[in-house]
Amino acid sequence: MRTLQTFCIRTYGCQMNELDSEVMKGMLERRGLTRTDDETTADLLIFNTCSVRDLAERKALGKVGRLSRSRKDRPVIGITGCMASAKKETLLEKLPHIDFVIGTNNIHSLNEVLDEVLSSGSRITRVDPLFSTELDYTAAQRDDPIKACVSIIRGCNKHCTYCIVPYTRGPEVSREPDAIVDECRQLVDKGYREITLLGQNVNSYGKDRQEWGTLFHDLLYRLDRIPNLSRIRFLTSHPVDISKDLMEAIRDLPSICEFVHFPLQAGSNRILHKMHRSYTREEYEDKVASLREIVPQVALGTDIIVGFPTETDDEFEETLQAMKRIRFSTAFLFSYSPRKGTPASRWKDDVSEEVKEQRLQKLIEEQETISYNEMQMLLHQTVEVLVEGVSIKDKAMVKGRTRTWKNVVFPGRLEQIGTVVSVKLHSFTNQTYVGEQVKQDAFLIQ
Ligand code: SAH
Ligand code: SF4
Ligand code: F3S
Question: pTM (2 decimals)?
């Protein structure tokens, strides 16, 4: 039987994949393997892939191909993540150097699959449509000592017509509230001060398990009671499921950061309907207005897709105007990319790449202006910063984030890492404020 000593994991895609990679790292370290960042020497290479857009897939496939060709020895190579779930055993046919394919719902069987590969030399595919609750999240090995992500719900039931995620991650499966609270407590005991709750739609939490009597806002109330947990964030919210209860939880619970990422996707009602987003632009903007009324300091994040099939210039203009009115704090902007197996992939991808690119550029420029103005509005104010580490550029400075996800650096000391301090903002370059700590005051939450 072959033995493995070192492993290297390359991660593509979203935070959910990052977290799955952290869990795999922990599982492999428990097995006695040592992590290395050197993909040219590792005995085991894992590519934890993303399928959300064509480019994401091509990046990972290109890397696998190049490495398989360049390595003279024969490492064990596995593909995990969303592309593994989407393409299944066809990956083994396409890529002769691959030893195993493990889907997003089968990560718990990584070691078992490795045993089989090593003992029999066979090539293995494990892709189940439903998430297995056997996954031991407490195995996760995180590199960041202050901020951790915690999974609360996997999968998605929304079936937006462009999106592959419901096919790669399966239907929604909420995690038991006690298990979530326990993991968060353990993380805080280890020194973590900020937790980001993860799910494709965090605010669908608990709807698949009515018997628990715990919806997303209920969970927030429970987590807020954990002593020394300074900050809780959550990603991503679906506009339809943003309830008044949730807005009030953000207002009332000290640890919940005033930042909501809830993708608009498009500003035209016809396109939203075709995307199967199940809200109108007006309903979305009503939610924004309620959120801003209940939580005046809230910052909003969004995702937007341009060039969805049949999107006209006027309809794109509606998206641009919506962005101008809403003024998102952060925006992830994408060109539509047809994904095999989704309903939209059966419609003609009729907006040319050139037009998609022009529309994207317009949105990027608009967002730059909005972000610049927003950055300016906070200048000379005092904000709460959780110190996360030493600044990469200047070792005499420490870095952190505001509650609304803005980067801040200021002269500080190593001992401040993990503490919440008040910082007066003097200037900014790009997306980062430069400030100075002021006497601890009412901004402190602990
Ligand atoms: N669950 C989250 C987002 C998951 S995917 C939500 O619904 O809010 C992240 C983002 O990728 C989406 O919000 C969407 O903007 C983008 N996206 C998904 N499929 C895409 C596609 N086929 N082409 C371009 N962008 C896409
Ligand atoms: Fe994809 Fe829509 Fe589900 Fe988000 S809500 S993961 S965009 S199907
Ligand atoms: Fe990509 Fe899968 Fe996340 S498709 S964005 S890694 S859920």
Answer: 0.95
